[in-house]
Amino acid sequence: MSSESSKKRKPKVIRTDGVPAEGKRGKGDTDQDARYYSEESEVDLRDPIKDYELYRETCQELQRLMAEIQELKSRGIKKMGRDENGCSDSLRSLDPLSVTPSRALWSGSRRLPQKPQGHKCGSIAKRGAPFVAGTPCRGGASHPSCFHPLSPAPQASEIDERRVQSCVHFMTLKKLNRLAHIRLKKGRDQTHEAKQKVDAYHLQLQNLLYEVMHLQKEITKCLEFKSKHEEIELVSLEEFYKEAPPEISRPAITLTEPHQQTLARLDWELEQRKRLAEKYKECLTSKEKILKEIEVKKEYLSSLQPRLNSIMQASLPVQEYLFMPFDQAHKQYETARHLPPPLYVLFVQASAYGQACDKKLVVAIEGSVEEAKALYKPPEDSQDDESDSDAEEEQTTKRRRPTLGVQLDDKRKEMLKRHPLSVTLDLKCKDENVLHLTFHYLMNLNVMTVKAKVTTAMEMTTAISAGDLLSPDSLLNCLYPGDHGRKTPNPANQFQFDKVGILTLSDYVTELGHPYVWVQKLGGLHFPKDQPQHTVAADNSLSASHMELTVKLLRSRLQSRLALHKQFASLEHGVVPVSSECQQLFPTKIVSRLVKWTAIPYEDYAELPYTKDVIEAGLAEDTHLYYMALIERGTAKLQAAVVLNPGYSTLPPVFSLCLNWKGERNSSNDDNIRAMESEVNVYYKELWGPKPGYQLLTNQLQRLCMVLDVYLETEPHDPSVEGPKEFPQEKMCLRLVRGPLRLKPFKFNYPQGFFSHR
Q1: What is the pLDDT of residue 731?
Q2: C-alpha to C-alpha distance for 192 and 220, rounded to whole angstroms
Q3: How confident is the model over 77-88, as a mean pLDDT?
Q4: Residue 338 phi, psi dihedral angles, 5° rounding
């Protein structure tokens, strides 16, 4: 270790502050100047990474040297306090004033120890001299067992050597620290210089940008400059060179010089305008002549009008006899001028469709024409209003201020106000039954409503269960799928309702009518939900595209409801009417009979335990009609809950069955009951009969009676019951049951007359 530290010698450094040293200079002065040392120049030559590695190694070496010094110190203290060769008794006999070897070593032997009593050698150490074990005493004898302090000379030299090495390392660290500070200062100086350059460049950039912006403003001013001639619409260059004379166009000059070309075009424009001014004066003179002729003809036509009126009055009996009401149609078209746009579109399209395709469609206009005219009159400004303002103020102060509820009622009435005129459509059927439709227009809501009424040619027998069939509230429900007519189709109406406290339009439907979507389309109104529009105008093409299909659906709905009305009258008396065309669908003898047919509300239908599957499937809604049929044979009673869709007979009724015989049986616990439901619900197309299929419901009930007979007759006889079988087998079946579900044969085969499985 000492050899390594001796090799690391600090190089000799000559420092100067720039002033030449005084004294003699020899030949080596020039060499000394050349060897001038500067740490700043050394920084450029040294590698920072290597300096960092040197710093780390120096720190590790210092840490090691400090640990060795501490270890040597601790080792010397332990050896000097140790007892050797059993001389501890001799030390105990020393004078109390004598110093212990350890204290003599570190305190410098301030006191001379006296001769210890009882020591056979009788020799003591000299003052200040260390004791060494095994050295001869004064008597010339050597006693290894005697105690003498250990000499610290070797350990002290090692410690000094390590201290010297540590100092060298500390000097290295100081030099590295100075170099680091010099690097930091140089880095800051370079950063400052770079920042000053960037600031100078940035200032130059700002100046240039300002100059560019100024030039761009000047350019835009020049480009935006407009001359008066630019406002004049000149003829095209082709027309100019084609029509202008050569003395004005001058092609040899204007084709090469744009300025001269523009001047020539302006001269030609001036020449043309002079000609047009002359023509204008000529036209004015001819116009005055024509106006005088028109006045003369007007006087003639005004005198002709009374004559034509007298002729029309005289031709009224002829019009009535020939069924050509020209006078009535003329009055209708005069009244139609005061209709709002949606009702006018409906009137025009319905009249056109009636004249072209449907002679039994009658279109008319009802209401007060005077009130309709008053809606479009501008407010009259009169001086009487100003003169009577004081009197009106006195009257208003005397009147009682209306309450908030009265104000809301007035606002609601104003919001739901109808137009004074309405359009009526009368749809006549072949059997002279008539469907009267009255269309109204709500001015503030911009929607149309309709009211329905049915007039029959013959007085029909009143059936209790048929009360809702011809009801105005349910007659036109779901004419198109999902169109219930309870909500307004205009999305903007909801915001209008919020202002006046109207929750929904369904509360006012009985008074105003139903705002069906198909009614809006007949009036040419369309309210898109994905892209709402501020104003919706009436469209003739939209009304024309929906007119034919809607009229057919209305007439079909009336005929189907009238057919159901007749059938319900028979069903309430226990008779299932079957037409002659449908007799082949059933056997000649059916024992089961319908004993009850009643209408039930939706709430009662929903409470039945065997109708949950129909409700969950979405086949039963509150807009449908619900009925309960009871079929009996002996002790067996079959209950059938029927859902009648408003679109009957296009959409078939849905049956849910429950048999009360030897317990309660339904589709959830009896597979044959489920098969019976399939016979009427799934295979309903076999029961449509002749078109348009208005006998579907009665045929389904008749099939239900038939399959109940098959179900009861094919049940096995209970041997524990004495007597004959309750329901003897009268139907001919190929197989009584089939498959693991033991299904019964419910399919009737005509004309063979037997039953088989499907």
Answers
A1: 87
A2: 42
A3: 53
A4: -100, 5
- How many Å apart are CA 163 and CA 654, to the nearest integer? 111
Supply the angle between the helices 341-356 and 326-336 in degrees, to the nearest 10: 150
Maximum CA extent, the chain: 186
Q: Is the pLDDT reported for residue 129 higher than 90?
A: no
Give 610's DSSP letter: G
Instruction: Give 512-569 as a DSSP string.
Output: H-B--HHHHHHTT----SSS--S-----HHHHHHHHHHHHHHHHHHHHHHHHHHHHHH
Answer yes or no: are the C-beta atoms of 708 and 689 closer than 8 Å. no
pTM as predicted:
0.56
The residues, any chain, with a CB within 8 Å of residue 627's CB and separated by 6 or more, are 465, 597, 598, 599, 600, 641, 642, 644
Q: What is the pLDDT of residue 91?
A: 37
Q: Locate 339 and state its tokens.
A: 């209709």
Given a cut of 50, whether residue 89 has pLDDT beyond it is: no
* Gap between the Cα atoms of 626 and 644, Å rounded: 6
Nearest alpha carbon to residue 754 among 728, 725, 727, 729: 729
Do residues 439 and 423 touch, judged by C-beta distance below 8 A?
Answer: yes
Strands 421-428 and 434-442: antiparallel
Q: Tokens 């903007």 map to which residue?
A: 492
Bridge partners of residue 365, in order along the sequence: 423
**Two tokens at 495?**
């915001």
Average pLDDT along the chain: 80
Note whether 594 and 701 are within 8 A (CB).
yes
pLDDT digits (tens, 9 = 90+) for 268-320: 999 999 999 999 999 999 999 999 999 999 988 888 888 878 877 777 777 67
Q: Which pLDDT belongs to residue 105?
A: 28
Give tens-digit pLDDT for 6-26.
Answer: 444 444 444 444 334 344 444
Beta bridge partners of 426: 362, 436
Quick: pLDDT tens for 669-725: 999 999 999 999 999 999 988 888 889 999 999 999 999 999 999 988 777 776 678
Closest by CA position to 642, among listed 659, 658, 624, 654? 654
> In which element (H, E) is residue 7 found?
helix 2-7
> Reduced to 3 states, what is the DSSP secondary structure of residue 629?
strand
Q: CA–CA separation, 18 vs 38, rounded Å?
A: 11
**Strands 754-756 and 732-733, how do they pair?**
parallel
Write out pLDDT tens, residues 335-364.
Answer: 888 999 999 999 999 999 998 888 889 999
Phi, psi of 442 (to 5 degrees): -90, 110
- In the chain the first and final C-alpha atoms are separated, in Å, by 112
Using CA atoms, how far apart are residues 458 and 432, in angstroms rounded to an integer?
Answer: 9
- Pair 577, 564: CB distance under 8 Å: no
Torsion-angle region of 739 (φ positive above 0: left; ψ -120 to 50: alpha; else: beta): left
H helices of 315-403, in order, are 316-322, 326-336, 341-356, 369-375, 383-387, 389-398
Residues ≥6 apart with Cβ < 8 Å to 565? 460, 463, 466, 469, 470
Packing angle of the helix pair 404-415, 493-500 (nearest 10 deg): 160
Report helix angle 696-713 to 540-572, nearest 10: 40
What's the helix, strand, coil split of the chain in %, to 5?
50, 10, 40
| Tokens 């009724």 sit on residue | 653
Q: Which amino acid is at 558?
A: L
CA 165 to chain centre: 79
- For the record, the structure tokens of 620 come out as 């039963």
Q: Which of 416, 689, 726 has the alpha carbon at shortest distance from 567?
A: 689
